[in-house]
Structure formats: structure tokens, C-alpha cells
Write a structure and sequence with these properties.
heterodimer, A: Uridine Diphospho-n-acetylenolpyruvylglucosamine Reductase, domain 2, Uridine Diphospho-n-acetylenolpyruvylglucosamine Reductase, domain 3, 8-stranded antiparallel β-sheet, 5-stranded antiparallel β-sheet, 18 helices, 19% strand, B: alpha+beta, Uridine Diphospho-n-acetylenolpyruvylglucosamine Reductase, domain 2, 24% strand
Chain lengths: 498, 415
Amino acid sequence: MATTELHERSTDHGALAAVERRARELLSREGVISDHQRLRTYECDGLAHYRVTPALVVIPEDAEQLAGVVEACAHNRVPFVARGSGTGLSGGALPHAEGVLVVTSRMRAIREVRPQDQRAVVEPGVINLDVTRAAAPHGYYYAPDPSSQQICSIGGNLAENSGGAHCLKYGFTSNHVLGAELVTPQGEIVEIGGAAPDTPGYDLLGAVVGSEGTLGVVTSATVRLVRLPEEVRTLLVGFETTDHAGAATSAIIAAGILPAAIEMMDALAIEAAEAAVHCNYPAGAGAVLVIELDGAAAEVAAEFDEVERLCRDNGSFEQRVATDPTDRALIWKGRKSAFAAVGRISPDYIVQDGVIPRTALPEVLKAIAELSESSGVRVANVFHAGDGNLHPLVLFDDSVEGAGEAAEKVSGAILDLCIGHGGSITGEHGVGVDKAKYMPRMYDEDDLDTMQLVRCAFDPDNVSNPGKIFPTPRLCGEVPGRHKGVHPLQDAGLAEVF
Amino acid sequence: MSAGTLDQTARDAVASACAQVDDAAPADAVDGVAPALVARPSSPDQVAEVLRAAAAHRLTVVPRGRGTKMTWGLPPASADLVLDLAGLDRVLDHAAGDLIVAAQAGARLRDVQDAVAGARQRLAIDETVPGASIGGTLATNVSGPRRMLVGTARDLLIGITVVRADGVRAKAGGRVVKNVAGYDLGKLLIGSYGTLAVITEALFRLHPLEDARRWVTVEVDDAGRAHEAASAVVHAQAVPTAVEVDWPAGSGGTRGTVSVLLEGRPQGVETRARTVASLLGSGAQGSEEEPAGWAAYPWGEGDVGLKLTFVLSGLGDVLGAARESGVHVRGSAGTGVLYGSVPGDDADAVGSALGRLREVCGRHQGHVVVVDGPAEVKRSVDVWGTVPGQGLMQRVKDQFDPEHRLAPGRFVGGI
């Protein structure tokens, strides 16, 4: 197989054709898409204003097929991009125009659920919530819960190191994945980590999770299952202002309480949620907090009394408690639908994702309000208050000349605020293609160069999701035992490599 | 290279990079390997200068924090220079409201705990090796009982600054817990035994100190019973901070213990302790005092120390095999991480115990690593065992330290 492909490397088109031919050998007919109309359905992920039609889409059914396609890509220097459900919000799965989009939607088996070991083994296309559904009859669940958990895939979660409302207490995807089968950018299938804790050697999995598909494609993941809590109590609290809600948040944390979640919405976000899902949040609230406590019943009861008191002390005017799943779902409905709900009050919007130290909350919210006022661009605020992860929704009307640019400017200025306060340009949505340009504001050249050493170790030819995360790729240099690039004689079709 | 043969120009280069550079003393030997020089930088800039000088003269470098674990891993293949980080001993910043702390690599874990305790907070890594530094704690990825509830260093480290083998300083992560910008270099550095880069500064998330704590302990005399007791608590909903087992070597009838730590608000802890006592079975005793050996590794001077990992359902088998092999094990029954001790005077006996335990832990998807022990014993056995992904690890090493000058040979697969 190697010989014929090398002969045809004279043009990129030939390289792609070689990959396509290999894909058709390996995959069933439905697993390879090259028809332009059908390719277009894959042109974007959840960040729909970036659109690129891929040159080829493959939908493998197992790791061997996937590895075969990746190997052909590596061999022919054709870039590839992995995609799960395509719900990402940073353009991490944005296709490459001359590359292959590897879609994991047919790799959907939950291979093992082992509550006695607190582990499940799942394929990358498995939907996040389905892991919890499979574990729940045993009294267990999968803790990371991004808002898109009903549709997002585990593979995408690994790539982005997805968080969710409850990561304040339970951590992110990287805290819940112990092992993976990885197809490297060269097309090798490698086991990293394992089902038991602390696999000896470098924590390669720690580097892969959150690497946004730039270090290979995970074809199976061993994840941690967490025991369902004995008690869950959710509190919806209304405040006059975000300052009051922020003060209550700080007071709860200062009291040594670690709730499962503390979420905040401001007046504009509440208005949108009301319009969309009629969640019946406290009327006239300038801010609401959704606070969830979970754990052993005796502990939750003691903490709950204290949380109620701290909210009252900090000016709450209404508190509602949900202890059963139906009431709880109603409270969460407003929060979880907030992004989409904004569509009810604005034709277009940008979902921003920045992080600040929690104590900077009042100051940063004030600065965002000033930005909004001076620019005339409305900003609705929804955020994970407990960990300082802001999701400002910057509203605009794209049919108005210059409105998009103005919104973009406000959105960027919010990131600068985050960086200025020692925070991050992304807490859970990832850098992707959208924020690569902001990376140099957070890290200097040496920092980025050092991160890319990892890239060079895994993907020396820069074929695995190129153009994401890093504003400029690093040249990887000579690696002992391998040749850089294609020899000119091979390239001219005059020699072969076996 | 030894002290006598180190080139004078190399010696001068290191001496001009850092205020304090001395000829190595016998006590500076790294697991029996005598270095020529010890550099004691007092700032991250000096660390970078020293590493640049070492790079220019192709010196091998072994980083050292407080020197409490220099016999861990394999003896280095070469150690021209010990880079002693004890001078970088400051706790830099404790932002109590944000529950974070920053410290230099040479600061003791204990110093960090003292600095944050006033705000009723803690860095949730147990001090399993007394006097250990932050840098060494990260480089060897030590953990203790508390890992069951809060995880290990990888779950707590949020930012890191390192100096590379070529002397370039770099950072990753930051001051906020939630952050997915860029690669998580901190996780790669954790447990890398000084072979990738030299850690100079670390940022951690903190946890609140709980108001109340209680240990509940039961004595058991067979492995199956210990497994049952631990499992009953692990799969219940009492949310223990730790579930530990202490399982001495010895013939049948020797008793071991299963101990559970509960922390929280006073009424909550009291109620949960009653629940746990009934789960552990008759004879379970509550105590305000920690049990003997709590958060301490079981081996002493001259012993070989092992780390055993396995999935939870393997606990009974592992305890049984340990006792049959004459290995005293102790550790986190709640996560599947135990530490073993076997006398280091008989390399063959160590080898056969290691083989048996590798077979059993392997069957339960885990590993056995020789953590510590006399250098001659470690040279005669397979210290790290077979590790998945070794080819990729080698490639990572080649990128970070292409000349293999950082702690060469101490790590997995000769890295």
C-alpha cells in the first residue's frame, strides 16, 4: 500500500485521493463521504460562524479503521480533524479544507460498566449523559456535566477537557478519565494510563485530555464512576444586584463550604430564560444564584442551614428549595437553557468563556457593565460563580452594519479583563481556532514553545488538527531515527520507501 | 564523571551562574552516584543560569528539593551536578478568598500548610515523607490517604513554572482552577522524577479545613474480610475522606486493620461515623486520634518500598498475595493504591515477591513499582516494570531533554 501512495504524492490532490482510496478499502461505503453537498453538513461545529467544508469525511466503526485512515493521512501528510457530536464552542472541530474529518459518531459502544471498580469503558462517540444512564441503575454516575451533556460526546469532552456546572466540587473531564486507547497522529494504537490509578511513567493522558485533538484521536476511554450522593438540595436565591449575589458566593466559600455548584445569572440573562422556558425565577431579581449541595444527608443538612443564612445576611430577598428531582430540574432549566434562550432577546450573540479569580468578580462585572454602556452593546451574564468562570453573552444584530464588529470588540475586551485579573481566556470551551490569537496574551513565546514540545513528540508533522490552540506552529526539528519530510526523489515519484 | 575529572571550564561556568556552588560532599551522592558539584541557586533566574551553563558543557544534572527521596527510582546513570533547590523556599502568595497558594519548589510542603492554616485551609496532599519539598512532592507524585476524596497532585496543581534542560523558563496553567488554555504541562511534570525539566514554582488549589474529624477502625484477620469491610464503605454514601488498610506480613491469624476517616461538620461527622461503624462490622471503634502508621509509608531504612496499584475489586487478592509473599502493605483501599515493605537484605526474595505481586496486580489491571530501596537491590530487579506508552514517553523526553542530561536513567524505560 505504501508504494502506490508515495508515487501519487506529486500534488495535494493526489495525496488526498490516496487517503480516500485507503479509507474506501478499510471502511464500509456509508463510512466515507466525498460528495460535496454531504460534506457541507460537516462544515462547522457549535461555533457556527467559522465554516470550512472538509475535503473528505470518514466515519469509522472501530479503532483499527480509524487508525488505518490516520496512518494514511500521516503517510501522505494530509491533515485530519477529529469530531464527536460537533457541539464545541471554540471551533476545535472546524474542518480543514484540504483535510479529512474523522467523525466518531459510529463508535458508540459502552463496552463495560463496572460499578465494583467504579469504572466504565466507553467509545468516543458515546453521549456524555448515556454514561450516567448506564451507571445509574448501579447507584453511580459520570460526574462531568457540560450543559450540552444530552448530545455532546465523550471523545469531544476529552479533547476539550469539558467542565460543567458541577466541576466546582467534582472537577473536570481530566479528573475523571484514567485511561485511553489513543490513535497517535502517526496512526499507531497506543494504550495510555489504565483502569488502576497512577499508571507508572509520564502522565501522557494528562497531556492528551484537553489537547483539543492535536495529539491524536482517543478511540476508547476508561472513566471514573462516582457514587450518587445520598442527598441533593438545590436552592434558588434572588438578589437585588450581582454585587449582593457575588458577596453571598464569597461568604459561602469563606465558610468552608464546597457546594456542588454555584451558578449566577444577571437580570438580562434571567429575562431571556423567562422568555424561553418560563422558569419562574424570582420577579424583579437583579441576579439569581442556583446553589446545589450534595453528599451525605447529615452533612448536607448542616451546610444547607448555613448557606441559607449566608444568603440572607448578604441581602437575598427570596429563597426557594428543591429537594425532589422535578423541582430541581425546573430550577436548572432556566440556567441550562440560558445560552439558547438569549436568542429570544437578541437575533445574534457571542458566547464568551473567560475565567477570573472569584474574588475579582464584583470588579470585573462592574467593568463589563461599563464596557457595555460605553459601547452600547448589551451583555447578559451567566456564570459558574463558584469558580469564577464567566460566560458573558454579547448581544448584537448582524443585520445592522458594524454591530458584529462592535460585539466582537466587547467580547475581546472582556477576555483582556480576565487576563488582566490573572485569569484565563477559556475555562471550558477551549482555545480552538477562535482564541488561538489570544494565547500570546496569556503565555509568552517560551511558554508556547515549551507546550509545543509536547506537540512535536506526538505529532512531528503537524497533521493532527493543525491550526488550533497555537497561533504559530513550531518547527519540530530533526527527531532521531526518523526523516523529516519526504525525500525529493520520493516526491518526484522516482524512489520508494518500504 | 566524578569530582576529580570535571573539566575546570565547566566548573567555572557553573560557579559563575550561581552564587553558591560547592564541590559535592559524600552526603550529596544520588543513590550511590557521586556528583562533582552542588549548585544552590537562590532564585529562578539562577536556576536558569545554572542549567544554561550545564547545557553548554553537557553536564548531567539531578534536581534536588529537600533531599528526602534521593533513593527513589533508579540510581542515575550519571550526575555531574546536583541542582539543590532548597534556597527557593518561599511561599509566594496565598489568596485565601480564591483558595489558591503559590510556592517555590524548595519550600517544604509543611511550610505551605503552615502558611495557609491561619485561614483554615490546607493543600490536600498528605505529608507522607516528612520534610519533603513542594518540587520533590510533585516530581515523585506522592500521595496519602486523603487521595480518596480530593485526588492527587494532578487534581490540585493549577499552574507551574519550570526551567528546561536548555535553561529556558516556561510556565503553564495559571492562577485559576478552571482553565483549559494550552497544554497541561503540569500533569506531565508530576511524577516525572526530574527527567523533563526543573520545577521552580507551583500553584495549587486549596481546600477548607474541616471542623470535625473522626477515624473508625476495625481489626480483621483475613484478606477477604478486609476486602468486604473496605468495599462496604467505598460503595456506601458516607463520603469518607479516606479508606485505608494496614496489612502486616506474617502467618495466618496476624490481624490487620481497615480505617476510615470522616471529616465535616460536627453533627454530620457523628452521624456518618455511626453509619460507617455499622458497615465495618462488629468491633469497629471510633477515635479522635489517627491510627498508628497513618499517612506513613510502611518501609524503613534498608527495606525495599513498593507501590501496588489495582482496580478496587482486586483488593482481597492483593492483600492475600502480599501476606503470602512476606510483604507488609498499607495504603488506600478506597482507591486501589497500596505501599509495600519487604526487607532489602535478600535480593532474590525481593525479586520473587515482586514477581508474584506483579502477577496479581496485573490481573487486576494495575502495576507494581519499586519506589525505594538499596541501590544494589534495585539494580538486580525490574524497578519500573512494563509500562504502556513507553515509546511515546521516550519521544516526550527526547523533545524536552534531547541530550538526556536531566536525571538520566532514574525513570521508566531508562529515561
